[in-house]
């Protein structure tokens, strides 16, 4: 891993043609290691496989954001292709760890130290914090071994702040508006 890896997130709603157009140049960056897809995003099986193929061609992990869902009904064709699940509730991690194969990474968005510690003790493989919690990111990185994700990076300044706080991954939202490559460049300039 370089100083930090990048973890873009897909918009909740998008056209698959936009994903097929804009993702390849973004995912070809060696710093991009994972991509988060919302469980709520409506995708046909064919569109899902097109997306998965782009990720595999670029050696980028596919993480499914299940939000607060404790027992999501993930279609088998998606489940077999997943590299990880991302939850927004620490109390769901223990159940997910028991019901999810060990090769599936589990991540959790946390607001507090207690939530992060609960998620870590329950089997999370990484913890994510909002960018407004830089002190929490720094504390976590100084005392815990689980990697941290700084969420909602939008600028070089955000990336520098997250890097200074010792975040391992920087997450940023894709918008497929033609400006994502510039956003990626600004974030990478923090290295």
UniProtKB/TrEMBL annotation:
<dbReference type="InterPro" id="IPR022998">
    <property type="entry name" value="ThiamineP_synth_TenI"/>
</dbReference>
<dbReference type="InterPro" id="IPR036206">
    <property type="entry name" value="ThiamineP_synth_sf"/>
</dbReference>
<dbReference type="GO" id="GO:0009228">
    <property type="term" value="P:thiamine biosynthetic process"/>
</dbReference>
<protein>
    <submittedName>
        <fullName>Thiamine phosphate synthase</fullName>
    </submittedName>
</protein>
<dbReference type="InterPro" id="IPR013785">
    <property type="entry name" value="Aldolase_TIM"/>
</dbReference>
């Amino acid at each position: 891993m370089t100083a930090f890896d990048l973890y873009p997130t897909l918009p909740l709603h998008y056209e698959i043609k936009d994903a097929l157009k804009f993702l390849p140049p973004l995912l070809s960056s060696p710093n991009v290691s994972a991509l988060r897809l919302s469980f709520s995003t409506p995708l046909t099986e064919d569109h899902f496989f097109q997306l998965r193929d782009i990720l595999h061609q670029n050696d980028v992990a596919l993480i499914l954001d299940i939000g607060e869902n404790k027992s999501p009904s993930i279609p088998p064709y998606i489940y077999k292709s997943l590299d990880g699940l991302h939850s927004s509730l620490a109390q769901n991690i223990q159940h997910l760890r028991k019901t999810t194969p060990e090769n599936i990474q589990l991540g959790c968005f946390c607001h507090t130290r207690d939530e992060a510690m609960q998620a870590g003790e329950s089997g999370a493989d990484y913890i994510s914090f909002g960018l407004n919690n830089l002190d929490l990111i720094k504390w976590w990185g100084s005392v815990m071994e689980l990697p941290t994700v700084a969420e909602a990076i939008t600028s070089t300044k955000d990336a520098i702040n997250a890097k200074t706080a010792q975040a391992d991954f920087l997450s940023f939202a894709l918008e497929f508006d033609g400006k994502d490559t510039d956003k990626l460049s600004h974030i990478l300039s923090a290295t």
